[in-house]
Amino acid sequence: MAAAVKPRIKLDRKEVKAGDIVEVKALVQHVMENGQRKDPQGNTIPRKILNKFTCTVAGKQVFEADFEPAISANPYIQFKFKATVSGPVVLTWTDDDGSTIVGEETITVS
Amino acid sequence: MNSVSRRQVLGASVGVLAAAGLGLSVSPALAANDSGDLIKAFTGGKQPTEGKVKLDLPEIAENGNTVPMTVSVESPMTEQSYVSEVLVVGDGNPRGGMATFRFTPLSGAAETNTRIRLATTQTVTAVAKMNDGSLYMTAKQVKVTIGGCGG
Questions:
Q1: What residues does each domain of chain B span?
Q2: What architecture is the B32-146 domain classified under in CATH?
């Protein structure tokens, strides 16, 4: 299921000058089941969250976050990076079960 | 506070049952809130200085399921001086940890926004670690009308 999820990613600008700050907003659909809730039979619903998020630009890591169950369902993340070289902006979310959700945009630095 | 202790009691008893039935140890998720321990582990026991960190949270959150939170840290974000890590914890959730953000000089600005769950009215604390090891922190109380941890 996780593989079918397509994250929504928005860069405030895709063509920038070197040194400009680019803002990234990303939203991905995920239940982020926190492992505390009970189903109607009283059994605990097992935890299933996206526990890690990373962003690389042209292969270099610019931002990383570890998520705990305190992050809301359909996690939204917004951050910035300094554009230095053109290349792919790759956003990766890692699920508790080891699967990943990957989204990609491209940035052009002139 | 009544509901919290009730929940902890329920959680603990379910945990014991599960442990007895499945031969597993009690899951750490059922332990008491560990925000203080998390901060200690993050800072290595040093006392962070107040300031530099900014936590933007609503004073009153009507729905604790999704509370927008912006964390920003004053820093030039150059190779010489940048924010390496920011820990965010809350003292009223079943577990203290909320998120850890890691920045690099390529981040350009140490600023991030996400949406968090708040089970009850509580104080959210952000601790930032600079690349030179210095520590800064801030805390903010959020009043929650409807809790966000189900159950």
A1: 1-31, 32-146
A2: Sandwich (2.60)
Tens of pLDDT, residue by residue over A40-95, are 998 999 999 999 999 999 999 999 999 999 999 999 999 999 999 999 999 999 99
Measured distance CA(A49)–CA(A30) in Å, rounded:
7
CB contact under 8 A, A84 and B112: no
Structural domain including A39 reads 2-109
Interchain contact, B115 vs A71, CB within 8 Å = yes
Q: Collect all residues of chain A within an 8 Å Cβ-Cβ radius of residue B94.
A: 34, 36, 69
Which of B66, B97, B115 shows the shortest C-beta gap to A68?
B97
Which residues of chain A have a CB within 8 Å of the CB of B65? Answer: 72-73
Partners of B67 in the β-ladder: B116
The residue type found at B42 is F
Cβ-contact B102, B129 below 8 angstroms: no
CA A26 to chain centre: 6
